[in-house]
Amino acid sequence: MSLSLLRHGPVDGAAGLCYGRSDVAALVQPTQEIAERIAPGLSPDLDLIASPRARCLLLAHALQALRPDLRLRIDPRIAEMDFGTWEGRPWADVPRLDFDAWMNDFGHARAGGSGESTGIFMARVAQAHDDWRASGRPALWVTHAGVMRAVLLLQAGKRHVEQASEWPSQSIGWGDLMAFGGGFPQRGSA
User: Fold this and answer.
1) Would 138 be classed as within a structural domain?
2) Domain carrying residue 35
3) Full-prediction pTM beyond 0.85?
4) Residues 32-62 pLDDT 10s
């Protein structure tokens, strides 16, 4: 049984913008190119599951158009983290004291004051991950970099982080694909 994670395509917005739960659009042509590379390798018995954010749905629908045999299900648990009042602002405009307060209590402090804590975020993603395991079915999640990092931790048996240093720092690019349990290569760009 495999779980593959596919990050959405490049977004239509300014670089450096905080847009976790914000519904920013993805660029159509690069998203279509990602779908065209991924669709041929998808198993017909795969569960195609997408975040409800427009940038993920664009890619999921492009995959489904190329592979109408796949049934799409939307799962809000695999949406990106909610950054509260920081949403829609450039990261550079987030007050340093506020950002440092979040980093200093990474597991519990709510991002942007009113957003999710990393603990809440991890618990939400863990519920979806647990349901995937219980299903016994291969799945492809069309999701976000934060969710992909959370799954890296979950796959390593870590369900909660206390320190920011515990959070995976590797780069995850637009259209990057990660797979656990077989199926696709362990990591690669689409």
Assistant:
1) yes
2) 7-13+29-45+53-74
3) yes
4) 999 999 999 999 999 999 999 999 999 999 9
